[in-house]
Amino acid sequence: DQQVKQNSPSLSVQEGRISILNCDYTNSMFDYFLWYKKYPAEGPTFLISISSIKDKNEDGRFTVFLNKSAKHLSLHIVPSQPGDSAVYFCAASAIQGGSQGNLIFGKGTKLSVKP
Amino acid sequence: EAGVAQSPRYKIIEKRQSVAFWCNPISGHATLYWYQQILGQGPKLLIQFQNNGVVDDSQLPKDRFSAERLKGVDSTLKIQPAKLEDSAVYLCASSWTDQETQYFGPGTRLLVL
Known about the structure:
The complex is a heterodimer. Chain A is built from no helices and eleven strands. By secondary structure, chain A is mainly beta. In chain A, strands 2, 4, 5, 9, 10 and 11 form a six-stranded mixed beta sheet that branches. Chain A is globular. The model of chain A has no long low-confidence stretch (mean pLDDT 93). By secondary structure, chain B is mainly β. In chain B, 0% of the residues lie in helices and 49% in strands. Chain B is globular.
């Protein structure tokens, strides 16, 4: 039973346009959400996070939106750059349980940004 | 600041053999995690240490997998005996505390033949 779902295995966008990556979750106990970026042969790199008390968090070109009622979050990258081409993982945890430790990851979405 | 170090980067073994992976976390990070990432899936937590104590090993197949973190710094993950389905990337991550962001190492890619 997948608790965190990324239903799009891949996404292709043109350089300079917006990239929107989506993520759905089923566990209502999740209260902390993260996005990680992964290049081939490297470990995941933390990108941005959001607590369930917020509905938006912004960091430069990256913005994460959280819709708790729909159990949905999305990552917006504006403008997209070729260096953003990577696999993006959505992850969630129930931090009020005392630990962020057990991050539940989605399967990832491979983003390709074409020049 | 040096990142999380892991070795070896690649390992090929035959089924029923044993294998060990090593992780050196970011200096000062009290919490250390081992994840298993099977091809096409997201990482799955195997075990979490706080200093040298185990916090969560509920998803560790304890009949064949073991892990330790002596002196609360480096950690080793062992598989004995390995099965074909253990083929995966094994990722180590660390964080200042269990409430902080996790930083991942490059991983060890294991192939069991």
